[in-house]
Amino acid sequence: MQSCFLLVRRHWKNATFAKFFSKKIDQVIQYERFELENGLKVIVHQDNSTPLVAVNVIYNVGAKNESPEKTGFAHLFEHLMFGGSANVPDFDIPIQMAGGDNNAFTNNDVTNFYVYLPVENVETAFWLESDRMYSLNFDEKVLDVQRKVVVEEFKETCLNQPYGDVWHHLSEMAYKVHPYRWPTIGKELRHIEEATLEDVKTFFYQYYRPNNAVLIVAGNISTEQVRALAEKWFGDILPGPAINRDLPQEPPQTEGVVRVLEANVPSDALYLAFRMNARLDFDFYVADLLSDVLSDGRSSRLFQRLLKEKQLFSHIDCYVSGSYDPGLFIIEGKPSEGVSLEEAEAGIWGEIELLKNELLSERELQKLKNKVESNLIFSEMSILNKAINLALFEVLGDLDMINKEGDLYQQITPAELQRVAREMLRLENCCRLYYKAVDKEAVVA
After folding, report:
1. Do the Cβ atoms of 320 and 293 come closer than 8 Å?
2. What dihedral do alpha carbons 265, 270, 275, 281 form, nearest 10°?
3. Is 184:108 a contact under the CB 8 Å cutoff?
4. Which of 10-24, 144-158, 399-413 has the lowest mean pLDDT?
5. CA distance to 171, 205, 207, 321, 431, per residue, from 253 (Å)
6. In whole angstroms, what is the distance from residue 232 CA to residue 226 CA?
7. pTM (2 decimals)?
8. 36-58: pLDDT as tens digits
9. H-helix or E-strand containing 247?
10. HEC per residue, 177-244
11. DSSP-derived pairing of the beta strands 111-118 and 52-59
């Protein structure tokens, strides 16, 4: 299983929050769609140039749909969905026998499962995905095994890894009412440790139903074939209850938030998190391109000026969270030896002021747009990538954005970059996390 994202379309630079959105600018992705009586939406992208097919099932449930007292359930279910279903004790063996591969990921907004295999064996994927949508193997032993796996992952990645709890702190600092205030892996370890079989059943039958899912099939297969298979394998699965999607909306941030941590980490670290627009807003794309201005490769401003020339940082990066609802624009860095966090932060604010006061040159902007376009073209080479992107855009609420995003990046002007920098990159809109390394000698003394 894979709880974080991999590169599919745009490169969001941060492994934890990487996303799958972008668009090959010069080519429209064709698709057809239909819906079963039980509410399952089906999208087909036919590509006769490949002998393979990707079968992707996305559920419109992520960490934001959890109860504040029972977090980490969407991530737990990513694991449970591989723990056996009503009629299939082991999910991986049939896929391997069919010459395929499969994986999954979870984030704040969605849970996604995909299978990639030869088209002649596509019915194996339909059989397996429909069986675990029909019902999981609700067994105390299975729950205990997967619960222990998730608990160990929590300990390894959040408690025992240097800076591992950063997203627990940033999420809590940036959000007070919206459920983005806890990370995908969960707010507290005990929420998973105390999860009961009844808790699990309730969550499953609420969210992992056909009316809360989208099936995407991409590859050398026709819509007629997909329709017949979808009706055969998914048509008799009962829908679940209606889901309340009226999530509390985070009010605008009006003053800066500061938190100082001290821990046994290799070096000091600095995190600046700015609230930004939602995924479908045009300003999201402007903010994303701003992150490229600051930190996209060795020629970017933060690397060239703060790391290479001024040597204020040994590492520095900038990225956007890419979440569906209003997310975060993050700048993070580790100061060079002998450089204080205050000096390092002053360097960052200096670069931010340049963005606010000086228009980006057309040459620098076009270079960034060309890089975006090349990334998008590369990403379109895989039918699996296209299947996942179709899934994500459908749940996002605008499937045709898959054919519009590239143009949106091309429309961005230097004036729009300056405007968004002025509106977003403000001290009162910033959560600042100072992660200080404990002085080991002082501790010993």
Report:
1. no
2. -90
3. yes
4. 10-24
5. 13, 36, 31, 17, 10
6. 10
7. 0.92
8. 999 999 999 999 999 999 999 99
9. none
10. CCHHHCCCCCCCHHHHHCCCHHHHHHHHHHHCCHHHEEEEEEECCCHHHHHHHHHHHHCCCCCCCCCC
11. antiparallel
